[in-house]
Amino acid sequence: MNRKENNDDKERLLNQDVDTEIEIDTYDDGEDGIGLKIQQAINIPTPQPSQPSPSTSQQKQESSFSTIASVIAFYFVISITLVFLNKTLMSDFNFEYPLFITWYQQIISFISIYIMTNISSKVPALSFFPAFEFKRETAIKVLPVTIVLTGMIIFNNLCLEYVEVSFYQIARSLTICFSIIFTYLILKTKTSYRATLACLVVFLGFILGSVGEVNFSWKGIVFGLLSSCFVALYSIYVKKVLPACDGNEWRLSIYNTAISIVLMFPLLIISGEASTIMGEKLLHSFTFWVYMTIAGICGYLISISVFMQIKHTSPLTNNISGTVKACVQTILAVMIWGNKITFQNGLGIAIVIGGSFWYSFIRYQEMRK
């Protein structure tokens, strides 16, 4: 009788241990962005279960922080370099063909991708690049995000053509506002009252900065708004489309770049750039093509940096880091080009950055609850 009771007790304890080790973690999947991911872990208890040491957990946290910091720093350097190169081409070289610049940069990006995918199997450091592929079914699924990406790049350069680099941040500061709108319309997710109030602060900074701009341009403002709109859309849609490319952002870049080259060619003809550019003497300048090619390489790297930033952080962090980067970019623009900033313009920039940080802090608090 006692032996039977002992067996029953052992069985009851074993079932209790197994139940306590079943962990179901439901969370928003930051990598694929396709809804809720359910992770189940069933661990059979052992007499002496091994627990991770504090040093191991600390090492993982430091590794994660190091990865995020490196990704954001990489985005900062490449993005600022690209903006300055494009502004140099359109201002210093007086090459006012933003669509052609964008189209050429996409061609250079495609060549870079093709080279990387072909040597990745021979270079261990580039093993993360997938084999080159282009499937019609996948291209159709990727097409919406490619259209958004193409619009984002085009309107970025059009905005940069009509505004000073110092005002470029103000013109494109409403990305957060558009992110809130599209998050509600597309993802059916409401934003809290405090976060919406922070967004209104950013909008106030946009108004003040625009009114105080010395070389104000309505075209620059409109193109800046459209650019902000497409940047916000891209941050949302890139995660929706990644599953069509097996969750591989590098494979998605192959389709994005190839399709955008085709989409932009008719725009060159419709805009008239294709017919007028042939008379440009700069086309015979070696220095000009060096700048164009370097800008094209940076254009390819900026796509990678945005992919990495969204994958390792979130669309919100991508937008916030873009705003902070623009602050550094504004300071450098004043130092390099001597762009004049009025008190009202400077106040608008400060309010935009302050509102962006406030918005980021609010969302961080909401995520911890």
From TrEMBL:
GO molecular function, one term: GDP-fucose transmembrane transporter activity
Keyword Hydrolase listed: no
Stretches assigned to the Sugar phosphate transporter domain: 68-360
Keywords of the record: Membrane, Transmembrane, Transmembrane helix
Chief subcellular location: membrane
Any one biological process term the GO annotation gives: GDP-fucose import into Golgi lumen
Coiled-coil parts of chain: none
Compartments where found: Membrane
GO CC annotation: Golgi apparatus; membrane
Membrane topology reported for the UniProt record: Multi-pass membrane protein
Keyword Coiled coil part of the UniProt annotation: no
Transmembrane segment boundaries: 65-85, 97-117, 138-155, 167-187, 194-212, 218-238, 250-269, 289-308, 320-337, 343-362
Protein name, per record: Sugar phosphate transporter domain-containing protein
Taxonomic lineage from the root: Eukaryota, Amoebozoa, Evosea, Eumycetozoa, Dictyostelia
